[in-house]
Amino acid sequence: MSSPQFAELLNNPQLLRAITELGYTSPTQVQEKAIPLAIEGKDLLVQSKTGSGKTAAFLLPSISRMLTEVSNNPLSTRILILTPTRELARQIVKNAQELLRYTTIKVGMICGGEELKYQKALLRKNPEIIVATPGRLAEHIAHKSTDFSGLEILILDEADRMMDMGLHEDLVKVVAQCPAEKQTLLFSATLEQKNLRQLIQDVMGDKKAERIVVDDAPNPIDHKMVLSDGNPHKDKLLVACLEKTPHQKAIIFANTRARVDELNQLLRRHGYAVSLLHGDITQDERKKALDRFRDKKTTVLVATDVAARGLDIDAVELVVNVDMAYSGDEYLHRIGRTGRAGQSGLAISFVTAKDWNLTKGIERYLSIQMEMLQIAGLTAAYKGPEKLKASGKAVGIKKKIIDKPKTPEKKVKDRLRDKKNVGKRRQASTLVSENKNADGFAPPKKKLVQKLDQLDDAE
Ligand code: AMP
């Protein structure tokens, strides 16, 4: 049986036009299963992973319902989407805006890290769709700046991660603000996680939700790490990775402009057609670099994170983190252009001793595992930490505590005058009484003794 086309699932010309412009030719598996049920108004529990097209699987039917059904409370927010991180919220907002291009529907974002007063002003305007992280939204609830009395659809994206991040309490606070008769769509990479049962009970109550499990959608991004000894080694690894991985488009990330320049030179020397993006290039140069990359005149784009923000490039098969991303969100942002629906993607990160714990933190944060990759002839001297904690992070090297002697040994000066007569017998005439020298004069004054000592030391 051939899979349905979007026109068979949705009947809103504004949405269908936007979908065509985005280049979505046919629905992904999760979209095919979730869209018809969600349009009917069913509550859903959906198991599907990032990269499966799940964002459009909840956005499309919800927007479609908004466009076809008249609201009883036209000034209220109609759809609330909760997601674990700011980066995911940004991606959902971006995707929603693309799909809403031919409508007048507005989307607002409420996440941590931004000023509360601007967000309060945004909440007062009641945008039809709000995308939020639970913590910040719970703060607004405490300030009584939210009104979800007319909410029609509540969406929980990546519910398992929200639970892992300890957001249960905030989620319950938000759910308590929503009307009981709303539709609820819960998306999660797994529905089997133990701590999810309580959340499902809290959000669905006694309502019977339909379960959709899209297990055969493999996570399309393959995450690999290669241990590295530093920049000269990374240069060789990069050239080898590009040679060994067939690609039409690859994006290389480095953390500084200087490194981007170096890598650009290196790859050009190896015959690659390179586009380069960093904060020092002009807007015009940036546009040209991107156009050349999009049009496949260049096959490699070397960039810093800041310069790569908001890039809209599809079909990138390979992302190489020559320098590791400094956070999970940044990593997600970097790899977000590979493994788009229907294609597979490969993300390779070079990990030095200094990056080990950061890398393990990113794996835990994103619930991913980076497979260790060895490149023949370029194995690093660094083999990973000797001892690992349960988290996979390196056990810290404790400073050795050396027992200090209780009474420090008296420093004895090594004086020539003490040594020069060693083994010689004293002459009777040189014997002196305690307070007098042989010549009968009193011993030299303290200052003079010190000077003599210094002279001895200098010898
Ligand atoms: P997601 O799983 O929501 O993170 O989606 C992964 C990527 O797939 C996003 O870049 C979407 O723009 C893209 N996408 C979603 N649905 C489709 C589709 N039906 N055809 C092609 N690409 C899609």
Tell me the β content: 5-15%
Low-confidence stretches: 399-405, 428-445, 451-459
Overall structural class, as computed from helix and strand content, comes to: alpha/beta
Provide the list of bound ligands, each named once.
Answer: adenosine monophosphate
At the fourth level of CATH, the homologous superfamily of the largest domain is P-loop containing nucleotide triphosphate hydrolases
Structural description of this entry:
The chain has 459 residues and is an alpha/beta fold. It has three domains: 6-213, 3-Layer(aba) Sandwich (Rossmann fold); 221-372, Rossmann fold (3-Layer(aba) Sandwich), CATH 3.40.50; 429-459. Helices cover 38% and strands 14% of the residues. The chain contains 18 helices and 14 strands. The protein has helices spanning 6-9, 13-22, 29-39, 54-68, 86-99, 116-124, 134-142, 159-164, 168-176, 196-204, 231-244, 257-269, 283-294, 305-308, 328-335, 356-366, 416-419, 446-458, and strands spanning 44-47, 79-82, 107-110, 129-132, 153-156, 183-188, 210-213, 221-227, 250-253, 274-277, 300-303, 318-321, 345-351, 371-372. The strands form two sheets. The protein has a seven-stranded parallel beta sheet with strand order 3-4-2-5-6-1-7, with helices on both faces. Helix 15 links the parallel strand 12 and strand 13 (345-351). Helix 3 (29-39) packs parallel to helix 4 (54-68), helix 7 (134-142) packs across helix 9 and helix 15 packs across helix 16. The longest helix has 15 residues, at 54-68. The protein is globular. The chain binds adenosine monophosphate (AMP). Adenosine monophosphate binds next to helix 4.
